[in-house]
Amino acid sequence: MILDFRVQVPKPDRIGTRADYMMRYVDVFDLEAVSYTLDQLLRLLDEAGIARAVMQAEWSSGDYRAENDRVAEIVRAHGDRFVGFASVDAADGMAAVNELKRAVETLGLRGLNVQPFASRLYANDKKFYPLYLKCLEYGIPVTIHTGINYSNDRTIDYGRPIYVDEVACDFPGLDIVLNHGGWPWTHESVAIARKHRSVFIEFGGIAPKYLAAENAGWDILLRFANNLLQDQVLFATDSMVPFARAVEEARALPLKPEVLAKVMGGNAERLLRSVG
Description:
Radius of gyration: 17 Å
Number of strands: 8
Strand order of the largest sheet: 1-2-3-4-5-6-7-8
Helix content: 25-40%
Number of helices: 11
CATH superfamily: Metal-dependent hydrolases
Distance between the termini: 18 Å
Structural class: alpha/beta
Oligomer: single chain
CATH topology: TIM Barrel
CATH architecture: Alpha-Beta Barrel
Order of helices and strands: EHHEHEHEHHEHEHEHEHH
CATH class: Alpha Beta
Largest sheet: 8 strands, parallel
């Protein structure tokens, strides 16, 4: 079974509701082309052979409570296709913790997505720690935006994976997913995942063919994915790469057949099985 570890929340007004600092993404990516309605999303997943997907809320749309409600609504209607993850802004302090509690206990969401660059915080900032602790208590994974961000008013350094190492040290057993693989610091992602068995790497938002491209900065991930990290790498699209294209390119990667099966769904199934 193919399991896409991250798809965007479908809604017609997605671009118009983005925060100002996220508008640079409209220039870098053709966001209008990847802003699907729910019916379109389901059809495209079917065409790509993707049986299930993790739908992660992203509070950069402006109102993370409304985003969490939207994800929960979709999961209630299509629980066989989607697993819902909440999102909060750690800068809101206890309000963010309370929203995570509502998202899990009332809405039934099964993971947390945080974006350090959006909060202007590093992943190891202590404002995140109450959220990490709640995730550990609930037994749910946390996904952390790592790697480049395209906003012109804040540094890409917020996305360096190295800051996640301290988090994994301070919260042993907390399942952590490095979204976007941490590029251009992919070597840091690999080192942290090699050190912590509870850290996973997904490559959403990247055309999978670049993992095998010379001098693209992904070769170390591909090399380790084929052996030492074969249980810790996840296929994802972030809806930024057409689903069918992403699946086709991922299947063409020089990975052992048994490893490819893990990357395309087996590892994600195992990770999500622990949260019901």
